[in-house]
């Protein structure tokens, strides 16, 4: 007979308890490791959200600068108008231009600084924490796609194009009033009568390109779907009746009519500006859906 090992009942119980305790410890360690991994992912997501909020804050700063510039120019004009009115003299528009150039220059420098910060932040977002599927942020994906060359298909707007657009539009004279109504672009009285103001059109397009919202490159030009531009325009100009129609899926046929009128107004406004000696900023392209294009700086490759 082989040798047999005899254990007392007490020793056997102690051994079984030790094995059970070992299993519990192993299970606890496994649970804690999973919790640590989960917390690390949560921290990564929070970090990306913080960076995204930082980007949005910088974009808001740019918008604030635009508004402050407009306020400064308006205040400057008001002071000069009061001054010349008291003297009974005629106001010279050249004085306004000279006075506002300095404001525009300062605003341009601030915008360039903010865009530079935004570009650095966006790059860090795109290159960090993309090793796991759970940590990928849609804003990171968007920034990665910014660096793809134009291949004939729509692509997200590059940061450099955003910078060039802001520089151009900040130097564009928007003090001269240009506006047109749908009754002026149709041979017959249209079903929908509304007015488009060029200054507000520029503001809406600028908001879209700063926010990188719905912006694509079509045939090398930064473009936004006309429907989206007009939707923002209606919101800013308080054209709530038209806004209700174009947001109603059941009224697509009427929406097409309204957007068609809007596109005609955009083209007519640019023709008015060209006749006044200004360069053309926007055009309309008919892709799958009509888009408003920024064409002033030429085609991007």
From TrEMBL:
Q: Which residues form a coiled coil?
A: 29-77
Keyword annotations for this protein?
Coiled coil
How is this protein named in the record? Uncharacterized protein
Q: What is the scientific name of the source organism?
A: Entamoeba histolytica
């Amino acid at each position: 007979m082989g040798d047999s090992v005899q254990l007392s009942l007490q020793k056997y119980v102690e051994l079984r308890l030790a094995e059970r305790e070992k299993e519990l410890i192993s299970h606890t360690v496994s649970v804690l490791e999973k919790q640590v991994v989960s917390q690390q992912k949560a921290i990564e997501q929070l970090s990306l959200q913080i960076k995204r909020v930082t980007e949005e804050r910088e974009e808001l700063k740019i918008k604030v600068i635009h508004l402050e510039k407009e306020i400064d120019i308006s205040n400057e004009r008001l002071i000069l108008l009061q001054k010349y009115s008291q003297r009974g003299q005629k106001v010279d528009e050249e004085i306004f231009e000279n006075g506002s150039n300095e404001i525009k220059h300062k605003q341009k420098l601030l915008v360039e600084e903010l865009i530079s910060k935004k570009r650095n932040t966006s790059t860090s977002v795109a290159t960090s924490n993309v090793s796991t599927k759970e940590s990928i942020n849609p804003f990171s994906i968007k920034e990665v796609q910014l660096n793809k060359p134009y291949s004939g298909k729509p692509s997200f707007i590059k940061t450099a194009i955003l910078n060039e657009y802001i520089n151009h539009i900040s130097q564009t004279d928007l003090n001269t009033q240009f506006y047109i109504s749908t009754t002026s672009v149709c041979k017959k009285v249209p079903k929908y009568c509304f007015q488009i103001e060029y200054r507000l059109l520029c503001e809406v397009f600028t908001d879209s390109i700063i926010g990188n919202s719905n912006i694509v490159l079509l045939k090398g030009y930064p473009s936004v779907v006309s429907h989206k531009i007009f939707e923002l325009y209606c919101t800013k100009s308080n054209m709530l009746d038209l806004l209700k129609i174009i947001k109603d899926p059941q009224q697509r046929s009427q929406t097409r009519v309204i957007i068609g009128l809007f596109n005609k107004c955009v083209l007519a406004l640019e023709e008015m500006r060209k006749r006044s000696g200004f360069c053309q900023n926007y055009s309309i392209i008919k892709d799958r859906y009509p888009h408003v294009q920024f064409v002033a700086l030429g085609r991007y490759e």
